[in-house]
Amino acid sequence: MASEMIQFKSDGGTTEGYLSVPESGRGPGVVVIQEWWGLVPHIKHVADRFAAEGFVALAPDLYHGRATTSPDEAGKLMMALDIAQTEKDLRGAIDYLLAQPTVTSERVGTVGFCMGGALSLYAATKNERVGACVVFYGGYPKVKYDLENLHAPVLGLYAGRDKSVTPASVRELEARLQELGKPAEMHIYETADHAFFNDDRPEVYNRAAAEDAWRRTVNFLRAHLKQRSK
Questions:
Q1: Are 15 and 91 in contact (CB under 8 A)?
Q2: Between helices 115-126 and 83-98, what is the axis angle to 10°?
């Protein structure tokens, strides 16, 4: 496995991202989308875990160099995010991956956590080059989904004790996707809290839920990211 910080084109400028490539040197492409903390070591580790599973993973730096461990600062950074620019950054990350000879899939997967979970679904409604969308407890008040324009199957992974992205809101989203005929799988881990996948936060990390969610995520991406035609 090889990893490095790279730059990719975004709306006439450049954005940085953390790229992790499997030992084989090739694999389906996945965009890993940060929580409100920024491009912190945990997100880089998640990208490395995808590479260990055979994916080429890119985690774009949506805060452009800023990161924090303070919830107050994270909230400010999240609410200051320019959604139009962020969509362009995500589009740039997708285009970068699909231009790499190391990427074997026709389209990419998006996987995001908390704020990034919402942006994962948002990107899938804005970009037909997204072939699979994974949402870990995604919620973000500034994002409005164009669900009618969704062209990728969705895997949603949520927490039963989540007070910000409640089970009721998950079922509402699920019902809307069903109404539109969009393929979606939703799983709620009843005893888990928001951010249950983040093993850098022992106060909320839930190992059983995290391991099951990871297994589902890897299997889902493998099933839906089809290999490029020769």
A1: no
A2: 70
User: Rounded distance, CA 117 to CA 106, Å?
Assistant: 22
**Per residue in 98-132, pLDDT tens?**
999 999 999 999 999 999 999 999 999 999 999 99
Say which CATH superfamily domain 2-224 falls into: Alpha/Beta hydrolase fold, catalytic domain (3.40.50.1820)
Q: What are the residue ranges spanned by the domains of the chain?
A: 2-224
195 Ramachandran zone, left/alpha/beta (phi>0; psi -120 to 50)? left
Confidence class for position 229, pLDDT limits 50, 70, 90: low
- The beta-strand segments (E) located in the chain are 2-10, 13-21, 29-33, 56-60, 108-113, 130-136, 154-159, 184-189
pLDDT digits (tens, 9 = 90+) for 23-73: 999 999 999 999 999 999 999 999 999 999 999 999 999 999 999 999 999
